[in-house]
## 1
Amino acid sequence: AQSVTQLGSHVSVSEGALVLLRCNYSSSVPPYLFWYVQYPNQGLQLLLKYTTGATLVKGINGFEAEFKKSETSFHLTKPSAHMSDAAEYFCAVSLTDKLIFGTGTRLQVFP
Amino acid sequence: GAVVSQHPSRVICKSGTSVKIECRSLDFQATTMFWYRQFPKQSLMLMATSNEGSKATYEQGVEKDKFLINHASLTLSTLTVTSAHPEDSSFYICSASWDRAQETQYFGPGTRLLVL
């Protein structure tokens, strides 16, 4: 069965610092992988996705993630955090027709 | 592109009444729509998957008679919470996909339901 583990329910960084949100997945075959962001009282917005091809995926708002099959990871990074990046981030895996979400990581950005 | 809307954004109702939530894909035809439920500070839980013109497929533990889903067109799906009770209070989010592989889902802004 597929599953997604997001290490760290809360991550705090200073404005301008590196953002690293961790995601590990479990799947018997290479899955499709996604990162979504959710701002308070809003739906989810797709940040980026990996399906096939290049393992380093660039998304919106300066975020990127790298698919590492050997580590079964898909960590999300951003070189320099902005205050506006404060939100809840969800990693998700899809194999057939369903998205399985991780439990989410709340990112706080301090000035 | 790929905009999904939900209506209403927020609804308060009395216990025992039914509430209908609409999910629309505004600029694409959605072959599949999904309904999720999100409890405070938790992840999204898939409730059901609906394909246009066919019956919804419910996840284990979700009462299909309680949460009625209709996907009458390629741009509209509705979720009706029948005889709502306070424990049904939650944030309901829909998503839509246009590709058969359902590679990417586009999410609506969510509907906050409060049952008094």
## 2
Amino acid sequence: EIVLTQSPGTLSLSPGERASLSCRASQSISSTYFAWYQQKVGQPPRLLIYGASTRATAVPDRFSASGSGTDFTLTINRLEPEDFAVYYCQQFGSSPETFGQGTKVETK
Amino acid sequence: VQLVQSGAEVKKPGESLRISCQASGYKFTTFWITWVRQTSGKGLEWMGNIDPIDSNTDYSPSFQGHVSFSVDKSTTTAYLHLRSLKASDSAIYFCARQESPHPGAVPLDVWGQGTTVTVSS
């Protein structure tokens, strides 16, 4: 099983700042089968980015992602109030598919 | 395009449970249905998925033997079956649709609203 480890656990930032979230895999994975999700309280997760860098429908371009192999990064430029949420990474190329434990982006 | 799940459930230990996930707005057989569990202690857990075309399933080892998936193509509904419930099964269960893996495949792009399950004596 591929273990995904996200860091930091919590990121305290102010609106307008840049957020950089990390996800590290226990073994090399194809970026084709890597995704990021956003989840707000009381809602299901929302797909943000897949294929390591393709934004899903209606996702603003302040969200971007990069990475390959074992290290992946989600960047949120100029945080908006609605961006404060929990973010999860996922690999879906190897069974069992796995999620990271999440990074909470909170208001400083 | 939406997935609508059945409502919250309260069950006793040892009982069984079936959660439904009705798809609409797209061709049901063109996407797998994936089930995800969320608990406060463990975040999101991939339980497995089912291909509505042939009901082929892939279960996470963490859930193998304790859960099963099925579909009814006539009603475009997927089901999660949980048996011998324990208190530790208390969680929110989500269904989501997913393309079968291929370059450019879109993962979990549409989610159900979640079904809260409480197991308590």
